[in-house]
Structure formats: C-alpha cells, structure tokens
UniProtKB/TrEMBL annotation:
It comes from the Bacteria. The keyword Oxidoreductase applies. This is Aldehyde dehydrogenase family protein. The active site is at E228. GO terms for molecular function: oxidoreductase activity.
C-alpha cells in the first residue's frame, strides 16, 4: 500500500500497512470460510454476549480510535469520537439480534410450515474513505449477529481504524477468522470479494461507478449484493419556515466532514420570496464556520482526505460562479474553504454531479411542484431535507421526493436503528434498522406433512 499521508499536514505517517496480494486475500477468505460453521453454531445468547464484549472493548478504546481517524482521515475530533461511538452502539444494538432472528409459522393444509433465517457464510464488506469506522460497522455488526463471518476491506487511504477494530474484536474474545480485515487495493482485494465463490454476499459502499461494476461482477454468480452509493441531495427551504433556523442548519447539512458525505445536501432549493434573506443568513453562518486543525476541540471542519480529492473539488469551484466562501488554513495539508455557488442552470456540473467536497449550490424555486421537480432531477436519490412549518406540506413533499432518507426541519441523516439506503443510482437494498440482520440470511421454508 502506498504511504499514508496525514491530510492535515501533508506529512507521511509511519504506520502504512502492506497491501494484501490476491493470494493473501484468498487465504483470508478461506480462513473466514473455515471459521463460519463454528460461529454459526455458537449459541445465540453467547453470540450476543460476545458482540456486547466487542462493544465494550471498542468503548474502552474510543479515544484511541478517534485520534487515529483524526490522523489518517483528517476528521474533526468531535466527529471522530461520534464515529467510534457509533461502532460501539451498532454492536450493542445488533447484539440483541442473535436471540431475535425469528422465523414464521405459516398456516397450510396437511402439515406445518415454518421458516428459518440461516446465515449466508462469508460476507465481503468494502468501504470507502469518508466514514471508515461507521460504514464498516453498519455491515459487520448485523452480519456477525446473524451468524456470518466477515472479510472487511477498508479504503486504500484510510485503513488504520479498521485494522485496529479487527484487533479489538480478537481482544474481546471473537474467535479468530470471524472478523477479518484485509487492507489492499480495490482492483485486487475488492474484486476478489466479488469473484471468489466462497464470498456469498458483497456489501459495497462507495462511488456509483464502482458500484455498477460490482453489481455486474456479482451477477455472474448471482451473488447477493448491497450497494450504498453516491448522492446529490436537496435541502428544500420553503418561505413558511423559520428561515433563520434553516440557514443556521444548512452548513452542517453539507460541510460536515468537509462535504465528503454521501448524504451531503449539496443543492439548496429556496422559495423565491425567502431567497435573499436565506442567502444573506447563510453567508453569515458559512463565514462563522470554524475550519481548523481537526485535532482542535473547536474545529467544525477539517481538510479534505487527499491532494487528489482537493484538486477534484477545486476543479468544480473553478468552473462555477462562487457567491462567497468561508475561511480555511492555507496549508500545509489539503484544505479548501466552505464554498457557496448560486446556480441558475441545472446543467452546470456543480449542480448535477456529486462534488464530494465543501461546495454547495443554491437555486430559487417558485412553488411546491417546482421544488419537487428540481429535487428529483438527478440520477441519485439518497437523502434530503425539507424545511417548512406546514405539516401537510412536509409530508406531501417527503412522499414525492425520490430519496431513501429525508429529514423535516432537520439535517440529520443516519440513525443505526432506522433503515438507510438509496433510491435510483444511490444504491440497492437497505442497511441498518431492525431488519438489517435478515439481509444477511437466507429464508428457508420447511413443510412438515402430518
Ligand atoms: P470508491 O468507489 O472509489 O471506493 C470505495 C471502495 O471500493 C474502496 O475500498 C475501494 O478500494 C474499493 N474499490 C475500488 N474499485 C473496486 C473494484 N473494482 N472492485 C471492488 N472494490 C473496489 O469510493 P470512494 O472514493 O472511496 O468513496 C466516495 C464515494 O462513496 C462517494 O461516491 C460517496 O457518495 C460514496 N459513499 C456512499 C455512502 C452511502 O451510504 N450511500 C456512504 C459513504 C460514501
């Protein structure tokens, strides 16, 4: 693996792991396969206890994990603590699942019909660099709870927390081979998860372009696949809302994690009669954002993850008409200020494409129908917000926007106990929520004649 860089300073880290080769990936997949029958047959109460023990060990190492993410990914320390806590909370939540994998008893003539939820075997989880810890846990916590073993490939840029979490699993008493972390390239390790016949399901989070390749690759073996992909979500602000509150919230809906967030509301639609007031208040809020060293407790936004990502985002900014920006350190490291663009043309790249950086485009609309049409005028459908004081309108618009996760008068996106996933090219299947463990099982139907 190429040398890891601290995005805040541009300095090399001295802890870059080696990239797994194809042969090493195969060996880990086989180890996970060998560990599967033992893990599947662990009594439900014992599997639950082990997941709770894993959560407790993560909790003991929360600060260490958070600091590692600050170093490797440039996340603000406040966010990184939340992310490590999310791993713990997911494990605790899904530790209830082994004892609740209920089948059904279905009325039939001439016998009894029952269903069982059986684990799949080895599950391959491929994660991106933007939220290395939570996204890994959203896959492995329900997969392990349902009795599967896991091979987890972190992103090339941000493998350190996943590797540490794998060590903590062993420390907590999970049997060797149950949760395996395989750092390496997408084109080697990730593709092997897709092609290896012993991997029974691939959970992929990342770009839509790679997601399409993975879906096509999985088709060859009719392999189960979950895709959590890109987004271009809309934040719809109606004039009947508390405009000050909506404008104060908007920066956090898009600039969190320096905009490297699949749920970022990177298009703001504002009803024309409130447009000037909203944009004025947004400017005040954006200029007040504290873009600081992510290790600083006051920091609200850190650097971008890499020089390449910063250059990609800068190219969008160069091609757009910038209305105003916040501030950012000059460097070293991969910094950009939070940037607001006023858009009048829906064909502009900054309006249509997932920028994945601290850039938001604002546009005016006249009525509810136009707002919904603009929000839906995208191939994506992951997330979004609606700000209004009219409950009827909130529900009408929420039902008409083609996206998997919407918030009303809020910019919150993900709760591990509610389902999460995308419409259209933002994904396939759902993660999280109470049903997630079932997505890591086959439902078997058994008819007993009597
Ligand atoms: P990416 O698609 O480049 O990479 C994601 C992962 O896939 C990495 O681990 C990478 O090594 C691996 N990979 C790359 N090529 C592969 C291949 N051919 N076969 C198998 N694996 C391969 O994405 P990224 O740049 O790391 O992350 C940013 C993207 O992730 C954005 O589009 C963002 O919207 C998306 N994302 C989506 C969600 C969601 O839940 N919907 C969450 C976070 C990020």
């Amino acid at each position: 693996m190429s040398t890891l860089i601290n995005p805040t300073t541009g300095a090399e880290l001295d802890s870059s792991p080696a990239s797994a080769s194809l042969e090493e990936a195969d060996a880990v997949i086989e180890r996970a396969h060998d560990a599967f029958p033992g893990w599947r047959d662990v009594a439900p109460g014992e599997r639950a206890r082990l997941l709770r023990a894993f959560a407790a060990v993560v909790d003991e190492h929360l600060e260490e994990l958070a600091q590692l993410e600050v170093l490797n990914a440039g996340h603000t320390v406040g966010n990184a603590r939340w992310e490590a806590g999310n791993v713990r909370d997911c494990l605790n939540y899904y530790s209830a699942a082994p004892e609740r994998l209920f089948g059904r008893q279905i009325p039939v003539a001439g016998g009894t019909d029952v269903t069982f939820h059986e684990p799949l075997g080895v599950v391959g989880i491929i994660v991106p660099w933007n939220f290395p810890m939570p996204i890994a846990a959203w896959g492995f916590a329900p997969a392990l709870a349902a009795g599967n073993t896991v091979v987890l490939k972190p992103a090339e840029l941000t493998p350190l927390t996943a590797i540490r979490i794998g060590e903590l699993a062993l420390e907590a008493g999970l049997p060797p081979g149950v949760l395996n972390v395989v750092p390496g390239k997408g084109s080697v390790v990730g593709e092997r998860f897709v092609t290896h016949p012993l991997v029974r399901k691939v959970c992929f989070t990342g770009s839509t372009a790679v997601g399409k390749k993975i879906m096509a690759g999985c088709a060859d073996q009719v392999k189960r696949v979950t895709l959590e992909l890109g987004g271009k979500s809309a934040n719809i602000v109606f004039a009947d809302t508390d405009v000050a509150a909506a404008a104060a919230s908007a920066p956090y809906a898009v600039f969190d994690n320096a905009g490297q967030d699949c749920c970022a509301r990177s298009r703001i639609l504002v009803q024309r009669s409130a447009y000037d007031e909203f944009v004025g208040r947004l400017e005040t809020a954006v200029r007040a954002l504290r873009v600081l060293d992510p290790a600083d407790e006051q920091s609200e936004m850190g650097p971008l993850v890499s020089a390449a990502q910063r250059d990609t985002v800068q190219a969008y900014v160069d091609g757009a008409t910038v209305a105003f920006t916040g501030t950012a350190p000059d460097g070293p490291g991969w910094w950009l200020p939070p940037t607001v663009v006023e858009s009048r043309d829906t064909s502009e790249p900054v309006w249509r494409e997932e920028v994945f950086g601290p850039v938001v485009a604002v546009m005016a609309f006249d009525d509810e129908d136009e707002a919904v049409a603009l929000a839906n005028d995208t191939d994506y459908g992951l997330s979004g917000s609606i700000f209004t004081s009219d409950v009827g309108r909130a529900l009408r618009v929420a039902r008409r926007v083609e996206a998997g996760n919407l918030s009303v008068n809020s910019h919150s996106s993900v709760r591990y106990w509610t389902p999460f996933g995308g419409y259209k090219q933002s994904g396939l299947g759902r993660e999280l929520g109470p049903d997630a463990p079932n997505a890591f099982t086959e439902e078997k139907n058994v008819f007993i004649a009597h």
